[in-house]
Amino acid sequence: MATDSDGAERAASDDLRAISRRAVLFTDAPLVLDSGRTLGPVEVAYQRYGTLNASGDNAILVCHALTGSAHAAGRDESDALGWWDPLIGPGRPFDTDRYAVFCAAVLGGCA
Q1: Are 73 and 14 in contact (CB under 8 A)?
Q2: Hey, which residues does 94 pair with through a beta bridge?
Q3: What whole-number distance in Å separates Cα of residue 80 and Cα of residue 9?
Q4: What pTM, to 2 d.p., does this model score?
Q5: Most buried among 3, 24, 53, 82, using CB within 10 Å?
Q6: How many other CB atoms are there within 10 angstroms of residue 106's CB atom?
Q7: pLDDT tens track for 26-74
C-alpha cells in the first residue's frame, strides 16, 4: 500500500495524465538538413501538456538527451513517471495552466 507521500505524488501525476496529449507528427515532405541532404519521410512522437492559446505564444519546448523519450511528465501506460515530472504541471515551474508544454522524441534517439 502506498504511503501518504507516495499517494500525493501519484495524485498529482494522475491529474497531469488528464491534461497530457500524445501524438505523432508525420510528413512526407523531406526535412532538409544543414548539409543539404534530406531526411524523409519524417515521423516524430511528441506529448503536449496544457493548451496552446489562440495566438500560439504560450508554448514551451522541453528538449532532452538522446536517451530520453517524449514522455516528460505524469505517469504513462506502464505507470512510470516522466523524467521532468517535478517541473511540468499545474502550479509547477512549467505551469500547464498557463503554458502548452511540448516534448518531442529526438530523431535517431532510442525512443
Answers
A1: no
A2: 88
A3: 12
A4: 0.72
A5: 82
A6: 16
A7: 788 888 999 999 988 888 888 999 999 999 999 999 988 766 788 899 8
